[in-house]
Amino acid sequence: MSDVQIRPLTEQFAVAPQLSPADMAGVAAAGYKSVIINRPDYEGGPDQPTAADVSEAARQAGLEVEYQPVVGSAMTADDVVRFAELLRTLPGPVLAYCRTGTRCTNLFVASQQLP
């Protein structure tokens, strides 16, 4: 997992660009307890690892995982509410990923504005 760029935003939440099944053991070893997948399957084409494959590897590594596909240019209020709910209910620290990490960062910032 040496080439994975994990960017902590708080002690309990970090973002990363696209991860693969092979990265999940390293994510667990880095101390994360949960992964949120915000990148829709095949957004990057047929070579992008699917959420199902990453989820299976995450579970094998002892991680909780949730697939919440969000289109970056079309993030909705419902997306933000669901993301906030995941942050409240998943064991932390939580790592979320998308194509670059920006979409997850935007979801996190928006979720912090909710009452």
List keywords for this structure.
five-stranded mixed β-sheet, alpha/beta, 115 residues, single chain
What can you see in these coordinates?
The protein has 115 residues and is an alpha/beta fold. It has helices at residues 24-29, 51-60, 77-89, 102-111; strands at residues 7-8, 13-16, 34-37, 64-67, 94-97. The protein has a five-stranded mixed beta sheet, with helices on both faces. Strand 1 and strand 2 (13-16) form a beta hairpin. Helix 3 (77-89) packs across helix 4.
Low-confidence stretches: none
Mean model confidence by pLDDT: 95
* Total E-strand runs: 5
Strand-and-helix sequence, N→C? EEHEHEHEH
Distance between the termini: 36 Å
- How large, in whole angstroms, is the Cα Rg? 13 Å
What is the general shape?
globular
Structural class: alpha/beta
Q: Based on the structure, what is the oligomeric state of the protein chains?
A: single chain
In short:
With 115 residues, the chain is an alpha/beta fold. It has four helices and five strands, in the order ββαβαβαβα.
